[in-house]
Write a structure and sequence with these properties.
The radius of gyration is 30 Å and the shape is elongated. It contains 11 helices and 15 strands. Strand 7 and strand 8 form a beta hairpin. 42% of the residues lie in helices and 27% in strands. By secondary structure, the protein is α/β, with parallel strands linked by helices. Helix 8 runs antiparallel to helix 9.
């Protein structure tokens, strides 16, 4: 295999053949070179494959100048990330500012200095590789947090540092009936495939109803409605209940594979929901933090999930008050749960009664 295959590809665009010859002579020992004698030809080259790693572009060309070529490159999703360096005799500061404004990353004036050309090209190729590495790393780490939280971080809506705030949330916990006893009987690879398929189905339901998948805890999922984005306290609670009903509704589609691997044991769920104030924010240490919700409402939702009958959605009184107009609910006898001294009024949700 030729070492040229590993060399970055540079596209040189200039209407003067002598300028192309000079630039090629400066760069061809280190890079692969393609040349174009017009802006239109340069754009056609960029329609093919492989794409250039960097483009050196003249500004003053007939028919289509370099500024327009750069604009078109930056408007195309295939080529917008290719660094463009203008190489031109136009040395006025205003001309340079205009070039940078249309998307160029640098500006080299003619007559060129070979050392400057080589250095600028090397620096921008290194910056491009570093940016691509950061993007790959970001995509990898992003899979460890919810899409909603990741998007909020990118928009600057989630503060950095170990800080928190109080917000009204509806919290949903769901887990699999008898999962702990079941794990010892199944091969780890089959268990991984089965559980990931289940989590994927649950995650799709959560996303459809605008929830935030806070975390997986073994076979359990904790989902919050109302952070980082809220639809309003009542609508967040309605969305949580609708999501829970859809989780129960999706179980039959998973049942065949589940029973084949489990030895005939059906997939069944416990679900609990509670609404109320929570502390939301970054918790942990300087070495590692997690963005999550804490507080009595979270604990209550977890306790209700623990005591819910199989294939049953059990909601707290506070949630019932928010959603009662939209769902058929059966009141339950007051219950006592671990960690909460007072008796709790709860309801089982059996069905929806119309659009929210």
């Amino acid at each position: 295999m030729s070492t040229d295959e590993f060399k970055p590809l540079i596209l040189l665009v200039d209407d003067a053949p002598e300028n192309l010859a000079v630039l090629s002579g400066v760069l061809e020992d280190t890079y692969k070179i393609k040349v174009a004698t017009s802006g239109a030809r340069g754009l056609r080259i960029c329609e093919g494959s492989p794409l250039p790693d960097i483009i050196l572009l003249d500004v003053m060309m007939p028919e289509m100048d370099g500024l327009e070529v750069c604009r078109r490159l930056k408007s195309d999703s295939r080529t917008r990330d290719i660094p463009v360096i203008f190489v031109t005799a136009m040395s006025d500061a205003q001309d340079e500012a205009h070039g940078l404004a249309v998307g160029a990353v640098d500006y080299i004036t003619k007559p060129i200095s070979p050392a400057v050309v080589r250095q600028r090209v090397r620096v921008h190729l290194e910056l491009k590789r570093a940016r691509q590495a950061l993007e790959r790393l970001g995509r990898h780490y992003q899979s460890y947090i919810s899409v909603e939280v990741a998007s909020s971080i990118q928009r600057g809506e989630v503060p950095s540092g170990l800080i928190s705030r109080k917000r009204p949330l509806t919290v949903l916990f769901v887990d699999i009936v008898g999962f702990t006893n079941f794990t010892d009987r199944v091969h780890p690879a089959m268990m991984t495939e089965l559980l990931n398929g289940y989590f994927e189905a649950m995650s799709e339901v959560v996303s459809r109803h605008h929830g935030t998948l806070d975390k997986f805890i073994g076979d359990a999922c904790m989902v919050v409605f109302g952070d980082p984005a809220t639809q309003g306290v009542e609508q967040d609670a309605i969305s949580a209940v609708r999501a829970a009903l859809d989780m129960l509704a999706v179980v039959p589609s998973l049942q065949h594979d589940w029973m084949a691997i489990s030895g005939g044991e059906p997939l069944r769920l416990h679900i609990g929901i509670a609404s109320g104030p929570c502390i939301v924010g970054n918790f942990g240490s300087k070495r590692q933090i997690t963005y999550t919700a804490l507080g009595a409402t979270v604990n209550l939702a977890s306790r209700l999930e623990n005591v819910a009958a199989p294939d049953t959605l059990l909601i707290a009184e506070e949630t019932y008050e928010l959603v009662q107009r939209h769902f058929l609910c059966q009141p339950q006898p007051p219950i006592q749960v671990k960690g909460i001294e007072r008796l709790l009024n709860t309801h089982i949700v059996t069905d929806a009664v119309g659009d929210p």
